[in-house]
Amino acid sequence: MNQRQRQISRLIESEGYLTIDSLVEHFKVTPQTIRRDLTGMAAQGVIERYHGGAALRSSVTNTQYQTRKILHQTEKERIAACLVKLIPNGASLFINIGTTTETIAQALMQHQNLRIVTNNLHVASIMSAKADFRVIIAPGEVRYTDGGIVGDATRDFVEQFRMDFGIIGISGIHSDGSLLDFDDREVSVSRSIIQYSGQVILAADHSKFGRSAMVQLGNISQAHHLVTDMLPAKDIRAILKKHKVQLHLA
User: Fold this and answer.
1) pTM for the model
2) What is the mean pLDDT of the chain?
3) Range(s) of the domain holding residue 10
4) Is 122 within 8 Å of 103 (Cβ atoms)?
5) How does pLDDT run across 24-37, given as a tens digit for each residue?
6) Which entry of 157, 168, 172, 228 is 20 to 30 Å from 76 by CA?
7) HSE (CB half, 13 Å, CA atoms) of 174?
């Protein structure tokens, strides 16, 4: 890396996420120069490149919640609009932790008579505003970083239910189809959601493919549906085909 790229890396490490505009202002260079720097740094695995900015790449710590809320929001909205077509009125749902699943929860507000079990306080807050929805919040430890509810009590509670659908968001997907996340307590709950759902719907935008995280949740082959915004790589498509996972492109 050149000197400017090293400085960019330190700034992103400090802030978690920086926009191209803020880096242009800081270094007094053109947007094209910053884009080239970020593209090169992403190719070296130093950062994760996003539309309009970049974040530090880590397999140990997830990107800050407020940053994740705005990353790829247009893609998340397209995914949500596509996914909710798979959900009939009157269905029962698990919905797990994540900003993608929160966007899906908002898109589901046009449905009727849903029954929802969730370990996501934001999902519960969104969906409890509808009189014909029944929303059940799982007990457990509330994670201060994002309002996710995790722990053994959460997992045990989830295992009391058998729902029509499990809507799963994920932090990363390895090229071998492994589903990856950062918190083993969250992962144990999501595993139970997968186990006790009639159909598993995995929602993931293109940035999740190839992203690293240290805890393995399962494999993409366990899903019945994958809803994403770009055609996945050949290896992933082969897994989907082999295990008859339906691919939906938003």
Assistant:
1) 0.75
2) 90
3) 3-57
4) no
5) 999 999 999 999 99
6) 157
7) 16
